[in-house]
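Handout, section B. The chain below has 421 residues.
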Amino acid sequence: MEFHENGILRSFLDEGKRSIQSPTHLPLKTHQQLLEPDPQFSTTRPSSASMISLFPPSPESPRTLSPLQTSPSPYLLHHCIASLHRREGKIFSIAVSRDIIFTGSESRHIRVWRQPECVERGYIKASSGEVRAILAYGNLLFTTHGDYKVRAWNLSVSENFRSKKITTLPRQSSFLLFPRTNTHQHKDCVSCLAYYHEEGLLYTGSWDKTVKVWRVYDKKCVDSFVAHEDNVNAIVVNQEDGCVFTCSSDGSVKIWRRVYDESSHILTMTLKSNPSPVNALALSSSPPNACFLYSGSSDGFINCWEKEKMSVRFNHGGFLQGHRFAVLCLVAIKKLVFSGSEDTTIRVWRREEGSCFHTCLAVLDGHSGPVRCLAASLETEEAVMGFLVYSASLDQTFKVWSVKVFTGEKKVNLEDTEWSD
């Protein structure tokens, strides 16, 4: 049952704002090809806004290679604290909110787990196909489904987990009013989600090459544009200025900005380092003005782009090399970057202060298939930074890793270290 009172949904948004926050190698594949047969795209008319560029493509720059850490780092400890396997098919998506973890899979169930021990709290049953993407914000959960629609849920996790569907995007009324001309519905898999907290805007990216923008409180699609020449694989939003970043199997990363006081978006910059499909994005911001964008590609490289302090322009700062096959997912927290790959491993990278220079601190090895999705949360932040890292693989397992990074001059003494689960 859906709520039709906009006031109820607005109260959920306000509450959320207060409470926040990969096997034997085959030829290189795109993000989609690894999971599905090639879809047939339907043509969509590009919006005029999508054709405008305020800046030329990023200039070519010499590649700067960040070194591999071939021996165990004296500044990091890690181990797997939980490993779960359910016969529910491939896990496509993970989201973390407060003490709760959500996983979406081929099974049409959204599983709900308590972190860090991964005790199951319940599930949300969706009857509309596999769950490709999940995004959690406060008491709100957004999910994408096999019918190419997005659903919003209100959650209560105090004692017993409860969920209630708020709406489906696009709403059914849109089809009733415009049954033959509806342009709000994606025409292929909705592969990624991003949410701009300040304006309450939900961004959806699809294999139909388009990005759609939804104003959540009144459930309206306020913009739709062709973003790329191939599948849109990932989308992120800079919460500081509202800039939107998209990546695609066409090998490009694009930066979009919303026109002030309007709903339309304009292309401000195209980043392209090599022709390999781009599967994943992550954004890392640190005060006062430092901002780094990471893109993971099918050639196994992770490109790093640094934002100019006085403009919206991003410059190529080099690349991280270590994965043998395609990079499928990325997470950035503080100065750390976690990357999951078709080579079945997860790598932990640390960015050096004031530069794009990165060191690979560790390789988390435990999956027997491509690492399809990652999520991470920061647990402690003092002399020892503690992280919980969640990974899901096409081997149908879900794992939780404890990662401890020692800052400053303190190093790890393995003999004196005790782990507590």
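Note. The CA atoms of residues 210 and 226 lie 4 Å apart. Compare this with the example in section A.
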